[in-house]
Design brief:
By secondary structure, this protein is an alpha/beta fold. It has a single domain, classed as Aconitase, domain 4. 29% of the residues lie in helices and 21% in strands.
């Protein structure tokens, strides 16, 4: 499994409240969530996420355990996220909704081409590549299906 996209660089400790503010969770309309992703961090950021791979610092997805955070990112067009570490609940929620994550500390320059190659076990940018912690075969299966619900539908 290989994913490519343009880099969107973010700092460490991005919490789920920054990903999607609680004021937008009164609706289940995912288009509203995707339109307001990262609004409190940078109101223009949502418009840059389609086709992006987020490259962030440590502890991405910390804070509350809201599943809407990875859903909002996926709906906004994020193809994957690279960070040295993730909050565990965010990590599992992201895999379950089909949003690929790679644990690595990759230098980032906005808009450069970034690749996550799970088969080769690396992430790369024009000036650097890093090994990643491999995902389990089950997690790869979930991601390849587009998420856990999609996998269950396919296996029916």
């Amino acid at each position: 499994m290989r994913i490519e996209g343009h880099a969107v660089c973010l700092p460490a400790d991005i919490d789920t409240d920054l990903i999607i503010a609680g004021r937008y969770l009164r609706t289940k309309d995912r288009t509203i969530w995707s339109a307001h992703v990262f609004e409190d961090l940078d109101p223009a950021l949502a418009g840059r996420l389609d086709g992006a791979i987020i490259v962030a610092g440590n502890n991405f997805g910390c804070g509350s355990s809201r599943e809407q955070a990875p859903v909002a990112l996926k709906e906004a067009g994020v193809r994957g996220i690279i960070a040295p570490s993730f909050a565990r609940i965010f990590y599992r929620n992201a895999i379950n909704v089909g949003l690929p994550l790679a644990e690595a500390d990759l230098p980032c320059r906005d808009e450069t081409r970034v690749v996550i190659d799970f088969s080769a076990g690396i992430v790369s940018a024009p000036d650097a590549s890093r090994s990643i912690r491999p995902l389990s075969p089950r997690m790869i299966e979930i991601l390849a299906a587009g998420g856990l619900v999609e996998l269950w539908r396919q296996q029916r």
